[in-house]
Amino acid sequence: MRNLLEFLAKYNHWFVFIILEVIGLVLLFQYNNYQGSVWFSSANVVSGKLYGWSSEAAAFFSLRGVNEELTRRNLYLEQQVRILSDSLVKMGRDSVALSQSQLSVLKQYRLIPAKVVSNTVNKADNFITIDKGAADGVHKDMGVACGSGVVGIVYMVSTHYSVVIPVLSLQSNIGCAIQGRGYFGVLHWAGGAVDMAYVDDIPRHAHFKLYEKVVTSGYSSIFPPGILVGTIKHVYNSADGLSYRLKVQLSTDFGKLRDVCVIDNAPMEERLQLLRAAQDSLTSKQQ
C-alpha cells in the first residue's frame, strides 16, 4: 500500500494532466456540434472495423462446423438423386409416393460428422483414424462415407477415436449394386491404383452399360442403399466364367479425405435382427 501511495505522489502531476485532458475532451465534443460529429463518425469507423474483424474471426473458427454440415448435406442429396433416378426407371409406379416414402426412411439415419486425423493409401491394408468414438455414439461395423461416396467400415473404437477399414484395404468387402439395375455384387480392392476397385459376382444375365454408377446395395446393416461407390470403367469375365467382374473408378479421393460421416444405420440393423430371429424360429420348428 505504501509503495502505491509513493507512486501516486511521485507521478501525481501526470494523473492530474490526464484527468484534465479527459474532462476537456468531453466538454469539447459534448458542447461543439462539429467536433461532436467528427468524434461520432470516427467512433463508428473504429467500431465498424472492430466488428468486421470479430465477424471474420468467428467465420474462420466456424469453418469446421460448416464443413461437417456440408458433408451431411452431400450424403443426403446423393440419396435424393438415387431416389429420383429409381422413380424414373420404375415408370409403372407412383414416383411421387415412392420418393416420399424412401425420403422418410432416409431421415431415420443419424449421421455423425468426423474429421480424419490419420490416413494411409500406400499399403496393402490401409487404415483411417477419425476423431469420433464411443462417447459420440460410434461403434464397430458402422459405415463411413463422405460427400463424394463410400469410405469404409468402422473396425475398432475407443472413447474418442475410431479406426476405419477403408475401401483401399485387402480386408474390405462391401455389398453394392448397379444403380437403377438391381444387380448386386461385392466390392473389393486388389491393391495398386488408389482410385480403382472391383465388383465381383455380377450375374451373367445382367444388362448394364459402361459408365453407369455403382452404389451401396443396402443388403446389410452397415450402409443404407444408394450411397455412391463409383463408375463402371471396364467389364471382365470371372475366373470361372459364371459371372462378370466390374472394374470401378472410385468416387472418393482417399488422398484428399478430410471430412467424413459415420452412418448410424439403426433402422436397417433392427430389421435384419428381426429377420434373423424369424429365420431361427423357422429352423427350430423344422427340427
From TrEMBL:
Domain of life of the source: Bacteria
Keyword Transmembrane among UniProt keywords: yes
Tagged with keyword Transmembrane helix: yes
Keywords linked to the UniProt accession: Cell shape, Membrane, Transmembrane, Transmembrane helix
Gene Ontology biological-process annotations: regulation of cell shape
GO terms for cellular component: plasma membrane
Full protein name: Cell shape-determining protein MreC
Organism of this sequence: Hoylesella pleuritidis F0068
Lineage, highest ranks first: Bacteria, Pseudomonadati, Bacteroidota, Bacteroidia, Bacteroidales
